[in-house]
């Protein structure tokens, strides 16, 4: 990254400011001239509560307001003129010169908002209710401050009030919505499901936008170096299934550099989550347009433990196709009947059959093809032939009983929906 782009983005490469001056407080330098600009704040965190768990926190558009020795970070995501600006954080200024402020982010970021970034009308309805639930961060420690392609990345370690260890990742960047990105307004969840932005007031009604990538450039997924050689072809197949759903080459797969793991600000990493993670997939988007900016995919290898290597890899092809579906914005589809999507949970024989089809390069399933082309490519949706749909939390919509967790439902052991 050249100096010019660093300056353009408004942040200087963060340095450990001299210990004699500040007692080894790790600060982020911030240009005074950009105090009035809007920034995008995105937060994710890993916690240990039995299982290792990864979560996102609702993304915000923020601005700064100086008040003596502190900067107030204001949440300005609500674009209504009447909306009050909530103080999101109060950040001490540790040092300054004519042009820059040195900010102590570790001191300022002392709590995590529980609202997730991926959401939908079935979570909160179609008006913005704003859940202010937070959990406090104690014994906070700045782990690192780094800089990736215009994004300041701040990693922090802390513990929660019930003693859990938590690692929090903050991405802060000048807010620059992609000019060519076309938001897709979700009218309801009756026929198909995408994750959605929180509702936003537009002149005279609430709108929710589907969470989706901008496809003016390829969507790139990076395979973690931790994925064993004998699994990598299957993981690639699962990702590239979606190119057949798009009907064109929209997605690329690359190998992540060896030091890179999820979550990453620079790559959409498919992480091999050996240990006690669960298979899961999280996305972080522009809160105003729904454009997905980061995807973090975790695959639990213990899920596919039955059969020989080929069967395990076919199982893996389905798991990866399912998780990449979430990463592209798709919700579950648990509608009963013939399998028309990889976004459901299935019994093992059906999972293996889907994996074989993916390996053989068979056409994508009808629901996946129809909705991804509708939302991403503006293709018309033929409701007469669209396979049925229902998703989590809709009444009577369960893949198996009782409700499985993601990894359990992917193990293929549950009862088929009746
Ligand atoms: Zn799922």
Describe the protein in words.
The protein is an alpha+beta fold and 418 residues long. The protein has two domains: 3-174, no CATH class; 185-411, Collagenase (Catalytic Domain) (3-Layer(aba) Sandwich), CATH 3.40.390. The chain has nine helices and 19 strands. It has helices spanning 3-9, 19-22, 105-108, 121-124, 229-246, 309-327, 348-360, 366-377, 406-411; strands spanning 28-31, 39-49, 51-67, 70-75, 86-96, 100-103, 111-113, 134-136, 138-148, 151-159, 165-174, 185-186, 200-202, 205-209, 219-223, 251-255, 268-272, 280-285, 292-299. The strands form four sheets. A nine-stranded antiparallel sheet has the order 1-6-5-4-3-2-11-10-9. Strands 16-15-17-19-18 form a five-stranded mixed sheet, with helices on one face. Strands 12-14-13 form a three-stranded antiparallel sheet, with no helix packed on it. A hairpin with a 1-residue loop joins β2 and β3 (51-67). The chain is globular, with a radius of gyration of 22 Å. The structure holds zinc ion (ZN).
Brief overview:
Helices cover 21% and strands 31% of the residues. It is an alpha+beta fold.
Rounded mean pLDDT score: 87
Strand content: 25-35%
If you compute it from the alpha carbons, what radius of gyration comes out, rounded to the nearest whole angstrom?
22 Å
CATH superfamily of the largest domain: Collagenase (Catalytic Domain)
CATH class of the largest domain: Alpha Beta
Query: CATH fold name of the largest domain, please?
Result: Collagenase (Catalytic Domain)
Catalogue the ligands. zinc ion
What is the terminal-to-terminal distance? 56 Å
Helix-strand sequence? HHEEEEEEHEHEEEEEEEEHEEEEHHHH
């Amino acid at each position: 990254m050249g100096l010019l782009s660093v300056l353009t983005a408004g942040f200087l490469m963060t340095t450990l400011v001299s210990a004699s001056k500040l007692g080894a407080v790790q600060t982020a330098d911030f240009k005074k001239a950009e105090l009035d600009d809007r920034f995008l704040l995105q937060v994710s965190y890993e916690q240990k509560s039995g299982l290792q768990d990864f979560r996102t926190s609702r993304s915000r558009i923020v601005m700064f307001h100086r008040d003596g020795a502190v900067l107030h970070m204001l949440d300005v995501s609500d674009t209504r003129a009447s909306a009050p600006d909530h103080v999101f954080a109060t950040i001490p200024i540790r040092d300054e010169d004519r042009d820059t402020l040195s900010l102590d982010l570790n001191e300022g970021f002392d709590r995590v908002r529980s609202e997730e970034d991926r959401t939908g009308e079935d979570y909160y309805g179609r008006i913005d209710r704003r859940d202010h639930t937070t959990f406090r961060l104690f014994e906070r420690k700045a782990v690192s401050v780094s800089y990736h392609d215009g994004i300041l990345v701040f990693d922090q370690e802390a513990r929660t009030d019930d003693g859990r260890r938590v690692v929090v990742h903050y991405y802060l960047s000048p807010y620059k919505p992609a000019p060519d990105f076309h938001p897709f307004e979700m009218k309801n969840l009756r026929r198909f499901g995408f994750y959605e932005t929180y509702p936003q007031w537009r002149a005279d009604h609430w709108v929710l936008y589907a969470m989706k990538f901008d496809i003016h450039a390829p969507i790139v997924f990076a395979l973690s170096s931790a994925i064993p050689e004998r699994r990598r072809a299957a993981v690639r197949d699962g990702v590239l299934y979606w190119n057949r759903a798009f009907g064109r080459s929209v997605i690329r797969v690359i190998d992540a550099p060896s030091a890179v793991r999820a979550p990453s600000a620079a790559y959409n990493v498919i992480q091999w989550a050996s240990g006690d993670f669960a298979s899961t997939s999280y996305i972080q988007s522009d809160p105003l347009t729904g454009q997905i900016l980061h995807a973090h995919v975790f695959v639990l290898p213990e899920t596919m433990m039955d059969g020989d290597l080929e069967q395990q890899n076919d199982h893996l092809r389905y798991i990866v196709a399912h998780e990449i579906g979430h990463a592209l914005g798709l919700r579950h589809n648990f509608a009963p009947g013939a399998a028309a999507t990889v976004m459901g949970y299935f019994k093992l024989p059906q999972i293996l059959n889907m994996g074989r089809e993916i390996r053989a390069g068979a056409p994508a399933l009808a629901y996946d093809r129809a909705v991804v082309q509708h939302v991403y490519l503006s293709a018309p949706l033929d409701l007469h032939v669209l396979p049925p749909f229902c998703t989590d939390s809709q009444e009577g919509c369960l893949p198996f009983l009782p409700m499985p967790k993601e990894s359990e439902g992917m193990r293929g052991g549950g009862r088929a929906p009746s």
